[in-house]
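for the recovery benchmark. tokens below, seq after
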């Protein structure tokens, strides 16, 4: 609960930031760092359990949100103005997710032995998921920004946005890195778990993940080869991320509901 409150308080301060309020910037940084440290400690305690690794939805969600927050904080440190919208959005979303998720988590229900091969695959997958989740957040903000520009809408949130071209550059850089990490995760999955890929759940996870990989590769090929940008590429990247989410979280949720 303390982590969620810290993130939400920081989100409120980010929303009210002005270039002259240096003191508020310091408070935001301190609150963000404190919340992130608490987040990291809490994530470690939930992911690494006596039985090994807990691969349930909530611990995995904790890892992904932690990675997103760290990425956004680093970006905000170097580019305060450009990263302001994603910083506000990430704090505002991550806080409630952490606070509410604990209510539905059954500790140790999906714990498994932390074998070296599994650890490599899980960590590479989580790195890919985190970067692509960060890209998905940017895609959503870009769609909103495009809509607002077309509708001639102005508000305090829009005033935080960088130029559209700069925001799109962040999105494509994140997709490039996420696609590279997702490729590594898929390769590690094939190498280490070939014999388990055709079980009832694993083959569906593989199918959804490969569909996501193909869609991301399609988007980046079109961007590099034909200069694709705008709503088409942002929406395609969101569709790819939806398949990625369905491949793990959707199947986990389905298994839990049908257990």
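predicted aa per position
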């Amino acid at each position: 609960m303390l982590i969620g409150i810290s993130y939400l308080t920081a989100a409120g301060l980010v929303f009210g930031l002005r270039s002259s309020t240096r003191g508020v910037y310091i408070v935001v940084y301190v609150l963000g760092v404190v919340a992130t440290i608490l987040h990291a400690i809490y994530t470690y305690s939930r992911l690494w359990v006596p039985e090994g690794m807990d691969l349930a939805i909530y611990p995995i969600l904790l890892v992904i949100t932690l990675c997103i927050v760290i990425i956004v904080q680093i970006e905000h440190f170097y580019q305060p103005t450009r990263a302001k919208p994603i910083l506000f959005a990430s704090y505002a979303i991550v806080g409630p997710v952490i606070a509410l998720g604990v209510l539905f988590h059954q500790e140790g229900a999906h714990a498994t032995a932390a074998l070296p091969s599994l650890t490599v695959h899980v960590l590479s997958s989580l790195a890919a998921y985190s970067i692509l989740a960060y890209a998905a957040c940017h895609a959503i903000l870009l769609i909103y920004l495009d809509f607002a520009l077309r509708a001639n809408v102005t508000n305090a949130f829009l005033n935080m946005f960088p130029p559209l071209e700069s925001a799109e550059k962040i999105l494509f850089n994140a997709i490039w890195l996420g696609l590279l990490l997702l490729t590594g995760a898929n390769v590690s999955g094939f190498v280490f778990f070939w014999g388990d890929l055709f079980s009832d759940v694993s083959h569906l996870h593989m199918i959804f993940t490969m569909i996501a990989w193909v869609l991301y590769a399609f988007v980046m090929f079109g961007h590099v080869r034909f200069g694709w940008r705008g709503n088409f590429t942002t929406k395609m990247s969101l569709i790819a991320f939806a398949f990625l989410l369905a491949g793990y979280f959707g199947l986990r949720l389905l298994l839990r509901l049908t257990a």
